[in-house]
Amino acid sequence: MVQETNAKAMIWIGATVAFALIAIWMVPAGRGAPAGSDQLEAPLRQLLTCELENAFLSVRPKFSHERFLQFARYELCEGQRGLELAFPNAPWSENYFPRVVTAASTQGLIYDIEESEGDVARFVFVKFGDSADSAAAFAKSILVEMFDYAPDYKFRVRIN
């Protein structure tokens, strides 16, 4: 009788833990706050002032992990940080990569293309200095004009 009660208790505990883990996984807050393509300035400013050592900001569509944008910080000068977009030339992005490079060049932005090893052959690093507005405008142009998302589409934006 005691073993049967313990077994039932273990089943309930296991079911409760499983339910809690599934609920946590399903809650979107863990994957980033929703923001439209015209609402990226504030999170980019947060990234500039964030205290995390190697912080980066990711902008992802709600239901896709294939297309994304990732911003990081770089040292402008002593004590001053800038924002940069790190865009990969990966299998999913090989059609977008040259368009991102062309857009950066056309807009007169500073950028570097760096070779890498592994699945991602190259990255383009587009530098925006300390201008969250410029970084947000460039991100919006990629999301709306290149990735073809509606201007009011809500992306998951998260600082890691």
Q: How large is the count of helical segments?
A: 4
The CATH top-level class label of the largest domain: Alpha Beta
Please provide the count of β strands.
7
Topology as H/E string?
A: HEHEEEHEEHE
Shape: globular
**Structural domains: how many:** 2
- Based on the structure given, which CATH architecture of the largest domain is correct? 2-Layer Sandwich
List the helices and strands and how they pair.
Elements: H1 2-26, E1 33-36, H2 41-49, E2 56-61, E3 69-77, E4 80-88, H3 97-106, E5 110-115, E6 122-127, H4 132-146, E7 154-159
Antiparallel strand pairs: 1-7, 2-3, 2-7, 3-4, 4-6, 5-6
Describe this structure in words.
With 160 residues, the chain is α+β, with helices and mostly antiparallel strands. The protein folds into 2 domains: 1-31; 32-159, Gyrase A, domain 2. It is built from 4 helices and 7 strands, in the order H-E-H-E-E-E-H-E-E-H-E. The protein has a 7-stranded antiparallel beta sheet, covered by helices on one side. It is globular, with a radius of gyration of 21 Å. The termini are far apart.
Keywords:
29% strand, 4 helices, Gyrase A, domain 2, 160 residues, 7-stranded antiparallel sheet, 2 domains, alpha+beta
What's a quick, concise take on this entry?
The protein has 160 residues and is of the alpha+beta class. It is built from four helices and seven strands; from the N terminus they run H-E-H-E-E-E-H-E-E-H-E. Mean pLDDT is 85; it is low at 17-30.
